[in-house]
Amino acid sequence: MMAIGSYVRMWHPQMLYLEHPDWQELTSPDAKPFGPEHVKDWPPVTGCWNSPFGDFYIRQCVELTKQLGWDGYTLDGWGCWTRCYCPYCRESYRQDNGREIPFRKSRTAGRCRP
Fold it and tell me: DSSP string of 26-74?
């Protein structure tokens, strides 16, 4: 039997604008989630992996894989290059480091860890 794979990116920007704006990545400490008036903007918003979006995304990939009878699914490096300031990332960083996430305009401007 031959295994066949596919790559499907299940991005949900409309859900992130309309149903779960708190799951959006926020790229600065004063950023606010985008609302429904931005649904047609490009590029669309992305969900933060540390919010409930991460688990939602993985569950839907597993479900699609089962429904289509695939042997597996690949989830590749999506949304992992942003320093995020959403409430989920802030709380996680506070718990790990006892302070707020430092803000620097460039990823390469300095270290985030103490």
Answer: --STT-----GGGTT-SSPP-B-TTSHHHHHHHHHHHHHHHHHT-S---
pLDDT score of 62: 87
| Residue 25 contacts residue 82 (beta carbons within 8 Å) | yes
- Burial (0-12, 13-18, 19+ Cβ within 10 Å), 86: buried
pLDDT at site 60 = 87
The C-alpha angle 47, 114, 25, rounded to 5 degrees, equals 10
| pLDDT: which is higher, 51 or 109 | 51
What span, in angstroms and rounded, lies between the C-alpha atoms of 106 and 54?
Answer: 24
pTM of the model: 0.77
Tokens of 57: 């995304």
With a CB cutoff of 8 Å and minimum separation 6, the contacts of 20 are 47, 51, 52, 53
> For residue 24, what are the β-bridge partners?
47
Nearest to 83 by CA among 72, 97, 93, 94: 93
